[in-house]
Amino acid sequence: MFRRESVFLLSVLLIAALSACNLPSGEPTETEAVDSVDLELTITALAGTPTVPQDTATPQFTATTGPSATPSVPQVTVTTDTNCRTGPGKQYDNIGALLVGQVGIVVGKNTSTGYWIINNPGKTGTCWLFPQFATVSGNTANLQEYSIPPTPTPSPTPTFTPTPTLAPPAPINNPTVAKVCILINPGPPQIFSYTGTLNWEDKSNNEDGFNIYFNGGLFANVPANSTSYAIPPLPFPAGTPTKWGVEAFNAAGKAAIKEVITICP
User: Is residue 113 part of a domain?
Assistant: First the structure.
């Protein structure tokens, strides 16, 4: 409002000055001239009157959310329950596991394999965590670099040795009699004492012994690995055939009997 009034007053003054210049000439009339400097000062003063500044809104600062806190110690979680071993691979012993929902503490790494070395969850010591399902947060640049441990020596697998099935022994071979004929009664009829040695070849390595047969009946037995039997004196008329047999045996059974016939004289 004050500014409009100032402009109006200035306009009136200018019109009055112009009107004075246009008065009819006659006797000179003494007028009070407006000093140009004063007019300039007046105009300047009127025109330069400061206006009251209007209030302006103070800018408001919007708070910005800072970055999420980074854990001071690197941590790891998994998307799938993951084994934790004594080294990087299935050839190493499985000594723990990190389960979904658990948070593990990372203490080292192996760059060449990508495995993380963590505190064994719920146990003492450390273990190597398979990295495929792992998500690590925190600064890992300064983690200790772990060397790959030696591959554990596998325990020898016991070799199963089946118990061999016992088979009957093989028959003896080539039975013979080294006979001795002693006349004990000149007769008639003549009676001889049949005696001598029964011999054979042992063809088995699993016999428990040998049975000795005389004329078809079991007469005696001798231990394993024997190859002879001393025939006791037996009196028979001259020309009587006698038959000796040898049979190898064990717990599984008996071999075929091999026989020999002898006659005195």
Answer: yes
pLDDT, position 162: 82
Are the beta carbons of 159 and 196 closer than 8 angstroms?
no
In this prediction, residue 62 carries a pLDDT of 41
Two tokens, residue 197: 């040695």
Q: Which domain holds residue 200?
A: 173-263
Separation CA 55–CA 61 (nearest Å): 19
**Residue 220 sits in a domain of what CATH number?**
2.60.40.10
Residue 147 Cα distances to 9, 92, 113, 261, angstroms: 96, 14, 10, 85
Residue 69's pLDDT is: 57
pLDDT at 116: 97
Segments in the chain below pLDDT 70: 1-71
For position 125, which CATH number holds?
A: 2.30.30.40
Residue 155's pLDDT is 74
Q: Are residues 178 and 104 in the same domain?
A: no
Residue 233 lies in a domain: yes
Is 191 contained in some domain?
Answer: yes
- pTM of full prediction above 0.85: no
User: Quick check: 152 and 91 in contact, CB under 8 A?
Assistant: yes
Question: How far apart, in whole angstroms, are the C-alpha atoms of residue 108 and residue 116?
Answer: 6
Calpha distance 191→183 (Å, rounded) = 6
Indicate the number of domains in the chain: 2
Phi, psi of 182 (to 5 degrees): -115, 120
Q: Is residue 61 part of a domain?
A: no
Give the per-residue pLDDT at 46.
43
Question: Per-residue DSSP letters for 138-176?
Answer: S--TTPEEPPPPPPPPPPPPPPP-PPPPP-PPPPPEEEE
